Fold this protein.
Amino acid sequence: MRILLKIVIDCDADAAWRAVHSPRAVAELYGPLMELDPVVPAGLPTVWEPGGDVPVQLSFGGVVPLGRQLIQVSDRYVEDANGSVRIFRDSGIPLSGPLASLDVWDHQMAIAPAPGDPTKTLWRERLVIGGPTALALWPVLWTTWQWRAARIRAMAPTWAHDPESRDAG
């Protein structure tokens, strides 16, 4: 089963690409309803790195445990009719909680400049789920993804920044 999103957001593709690699930005996407916390004592990494396996704990409002998830990151780069597309993939799996009944979890986010306006980003997401409860969980995840799209649109302008240059002398 699949859940798809296709939205144009108000930041450039470089800023969106940095955001999908930022555990802090991802955690803010789910807040304040859900919290994403580290499982290991070292905490969350500063950046999701390709090849990394990061276990996280999800909770509702920071109080009700929703389960643990393994985030397993890879990046890929492709060309489409409009140019370069960067794809962030989380092929981890739910480890505990209601989503652990899924045996397929493949979440990909494709980031590209918006056609006709390189100051904006075409954001495409695809979540593929499978398993004995996929049909029952699909409406909940679909609703979560619609809420997530609204959060992405609202937060995207805050992702853009121009690092200040430092004088060499």
User: Anything to note?
Assistant: DSSP finds three helices and eight strands in the chain. The beta strands are 2-9, 34-38, 53-60, 64-80, 83-90, 93-94, 104-114, 117-130.
